[in-house]
Amino acid sequence: MSVEEEMKEIVAQIVHVDKSVLTREGSLRKDIKADSLDIVQAMVAVEDKFDIEIPDEEAQKFQNFGDFVDYVERRVAEKEKV
Amino acid sequence: MPLKGKLTLVTGSGRGIGRAIALKLASQGSDIIVNFFRRREAAEKTAKDIVALGVKAEVIRANVGDPAKLDEMFDTIATKFGHLDILINNAASGVGRSVLDVDIKAWDWTMNINARAFLLCAQRAAKLMEGRGGKMVSITSLGSSFVLPSYAVVGISKAALEALTRYLAIELAPEGICVNAVAASAVETEALKFYIREGLMKDIRQATPAGRMVIPEDVANVVAFLCSEEAFMIRGQTVVVDGGTSVAPFITAEKEERR
Ligand SMILES: NC(=O)c1ccc[n+]([C@@H]2O[C@H](COP(=O)([O-])OP(=O)(O)OC[C@H]3O[C@@H](n4cnc5c(N)ncnc54)[C@H](OP(=O)(O)O)[C@@H]3O)[C@@H](O)[C@H]2O)c1
User: What ipTM score was computed for the predicted complex, to two decimals?
Assistant: First the structure.
């Protein structure tokens, strides 16, 4: 499964939505109506899954789910390099 | 330097009250372990400011609500230092909701970070204090005893924390470990801005008998006292730092009316 697919599964389970509503362009807060607790829990679950750290300072820059995916993909690739 | 050579862990000390406590204890000579959850930059900055005070600082990331992460943090402390002198249980999180809107997720999240974390931290810390004694101080709020707007689950978690403080204080008394808590009223921090509007901040300022709002340093000063040998006979107490607000509800109301 791709990083994006795995992230969709994790987020869908936490926010209680169907995977199909998660698009790269959609905002978790505005479009999926995730509250701040959902978002922190999703971040933490993704961090644990891929064994990476997503500092709040970075997470605050995400405009939509796609930005979140891109960031995680980048960190996973960096990790595989070392 | 009353705390020279001591080692202190302050949970959630990258910013806010935890940061002020970390800096205060560092200024008294203690080395500090700065714990954080989401804001690494803030934690690194606090660590830098601690080092500038002439003591050592170590940054450890751990979600205190996750027992596995908490264990990893204490494993690191045990391996690296082998002991701990002071535990400050400061990290807290919560969901601002009324009681009827609190769901299981919000309850578990808040209780785990605010109350269960202290249980687990204290259990591990007590082992690291064996044979040397120590201090444990938790940060709580007036919401444990009074009803504050949208504060239900946090207030409940703080009540649990204060009860835990009493039980631990007695169990750990023979080990020379002093356990207490500091309860603050509204403190001017980022967290507070999340809960209340600026207008209300102004009202709180005006309604506080001491004439201003509590600031993080006010809390840090009392924590430092509870960590000193002068406080040796204080056990299981929750010391209130609120500028007099909680003992003068009618005076506060009268002041409001006169405005
Ligand atoms: N502000 C007030 O009006 C007030 C009044 C009475 C009592 N208090 C109490 O004082 C303490 C500090 O509050 P504050 O106002 O300084 O809060 P704050 O500014 O929101 O800071 C909270 C701190 O806790 C950390 N934290 C949150 N969840 C965590 C977790 N799961 N694991 C580890 N660390 C975590 C945060 O880390 P990151 O920086 O990494 O996010 C941050 O350092 C809390 O116990 C609070 O209940 C506050």
Answer: 0.92
